[in-house]
Design goal:
The complex is a heterodimer. Chain A is mainly α. Chain A has 3 helices and no strands. The mean pLDDT of chain A is about 90. Chain B is an all-alpha fold. Chain B has a two-stranded antiparallel sheet. Chain B contains 21 helices and 2 strands. Chain B has one domain. Classes of the chains: A mainly alpha, B mainly alpha.
């Protein structure tokens, strides 16, 4: 196997460990669970790029 | 945007002048800018008609009588992106229901987006006499990579800390291009500009001018007075003081820092034909500082004892990313959250004006030869990036429909929420995967020399923080203290 393919496999392996093991475990910690619940309660998508992606805008605009 | 393998900007400027002239009619049939308008226009028409013909029979009567009506797009179940997941990535596509809640299915919507974009672009490529067969073969791979990026971005921990899909789409592309190299067979589907421009025209329909007065004059003061001042000052500072060699990089950083992060960076980069790695760099800077500001600014507001509405307006006017603004606002309380999110929404609408002004400034002043006279109207029209007209046109048309059509607000919101927003996200995600696939880490290194982009961002953001705080205090704390909302 060429060096390039080995490098690709290594990066994929690292990503699999992070997204498959580390992040799911982090998600079970109390801090992250509380933060997730808090965001859901406020209808916030922290990754929203534009206001139409924010669920809470429907509520805010409806109140006006 | 220009190709990353282009020669320095001065050379490309002269190339633009020396290219053989093509009539506007011929451009409409062949160029990417016009085809972005045709493709996005078709999507918008179909999306709007789908909502229009599916409204219930008593819809207009109910609207006339002031009754509460709820409608949704019939296309909604056929268009989706992978959803949120925590433990199992399969949950991004399907979550089984239980007695309280039905099953959540996104895989059908993901396939729907794949088919719609694939068919639309294949037809466009065929009519433009491009390599449509090559596109059909390569597009599934590029779409698969975009799907992987969405799945990475959908993990709940990642999502909770404001790390947008653009970052992961870039990463997915970069991993491939910097390890095995991007296979030659994928090239026909790596159409960064086409994806970005089509996505931007779709975004135009979300730039609703009727939202401008949501907070009255105070909102306009914070979002529409300070923002252009900061944008122009930062650009001038970058050119005159820091002497940043690339004007387009300077402009993209200035816009994403002062307007609204990634979406403004995309629109400005396309308007001033910035290089792909310049867009990547600007987005990286913006996302990094956003995470810090999202945490630090609410603490500063509490320490300073600012009223909630002033604090909210300060957050909305300064933090780049829309989602991060909401998070920071919510940590202060409900009033701060509402003011922050609304100020950011008003600032979001500035994207259209920014894109138009940057495009006009670029063709009139930046792209002309230094020894040439100011170009005439014909020359400006010829060089003007036409997709910006589609972007502005969609914004004006849907703003008018939203404000004036009976039930227009409900229909436009159903159209955006049920279809065009999702497709716009896919176009941007595909574009960022393509940017990653076309970028080598070595190409990014020269931009970090001397740390000028970082200095520009820090200085511009400092000015933004100061001016926005003054304006927020003046508007919400002094002049309109009683009627701020």
């Amino acid at each position: 196997m060429s060096h390039r393919r080995v490098r690709l496999m290594a990066v994929i392996l690292v990503m699999l460990v992070i997204w498959g093991v580390v992040l799911p475990r982090l998600a079970t910690t109390r801090t992250v669970r509380e933060r997730t619940q808090w965001l859901e309660h406020h209808q916030i998508d922290p990754a929203a790029m534009y206001y139409t992606e924010l669920p809470l805008m429907d509520r805010i605009l409806a109140d006006e | 945007m220009s190709n990353p393998y282009d020669a320095p900007s001065e050379a490309s400027k002269s190339d633009i002048v020396e290219q053989p002239r093509v009539s506007t009619w011929e451009q409409m049939k062949t160029t990417e800018d016009w085809w972005a308008i045709w493709c996005a226009g078709l999507i918008l028409i179909v999306a709007f008609v789908a909502v229009w013909i599916s409204v219930p029979a008593n819809f207009f009567t109910a609207i006339d009588q002031g009754e509460s009506v709820s409608i949704s797009s019939p296309l909604k179940s056929w268009l989706a992106k992978p959803g949120k997941w925590t433990q199992n990535p399969v949950d991004a596509f399907y979550v089984a229901g239980d007695k309280d809640k039905g099953a959540t299915t996104t895989y059908r919507g993901v396939l729907g987006a794949f088919v719609i974009i694939g068919v639309l672009f294949t037809v466009a490529m065929t009519i433009r006499k491009k390599n449509a067969i090559g596109f059909i073969k390569a597009f599934p791979v590029i779409f698969l990579l975009a799907t992987v990026a969405y799945v990475l971005a959908g993990q709940s921990v990642i999502k909770a800390y404001n790390l947008e899909y653009a970052l992961w789409a870039l990463l997915v592309g970069l991993v491939i291009s910097n390890t095995i190299g991007t296979p030659h067979q994928w090239r026909p589907a790596i159409m960064t500009e086409f994806f970005i421009k089509t996505g931007l025209v779709l975004l135009g329909a979300e730039v609703l001018m009727s939202r401008l007065m949501a907070l009255g004059i105070p909102g306009i003061g914070v979002a529409w007075v300070v923002t252009p001042i900061v944008l122009i000052s930062t650009f001038v500072f970058g050119q005159k003081v820091l002497k940043i060699p690339s004007k387009s990089l300077n402009m993209v950083i200035s816009a994403d820092m002062s307007v609204c992060g990634v979406s403004a960076a995309i629109a400005t980069a396309a308007s001033c034909k910035a290089k792909k790695e310049e867009l990547s760099l600007a987005i990286g800077l913006s996302l990094s500082f956003t995470v810090v500001m999202m945490i630090v600014l609410p603490l500063a507001i509490k320490a300073m004892g600012l009223p909630d509405d002033v604090g909210g307006a300060w957050l909305g006017g300064t933090i780049d990313a829309t989602g991060a603004v909401a998070v920071a606002g919510a940590t202060l309380g409900e009033e701060a959250l509402e003011v922050a999110a609304t100020v950011k929404m008003i600032q979001n609408i500035l994207i259209g004006v920014t894109a138009f002004c940057v495009a006009a400034y670029w063709v009139a002043y930046v792209e002309k030869n230094s020894d040439a006279a100011k170009p005439g109207i014909g020359e400006i029209w010829y060089r003007f990036p036409k997709f910006v007209l589609g972007f502005i046109g969609a914004s004006i048309l849907f703003s008018i429909l939203h404000a004036n059509l009976a039930g227009g607000n409900l229909m436009i919101e159903a159209m955006i929420g049920g279809s065009t927003k999702t497709l716009r996200g896919w176009f941007f995600c595909l574009a960022f995967v393509c940017i990653g696939l076309e970028t080598n880490f070595k190409q990014l290194l020269p931009y970090f020399r001397g740390g000028k982009p970082m200095i520009l961002y820090v200085c511009g953001q400092s000015l933004n923080l100061l001016l926005t705080l003054i304006m927020a205090y003046l508007m919400f704390g002094v002049l309109f203290a009683e009627s701020g909302q």
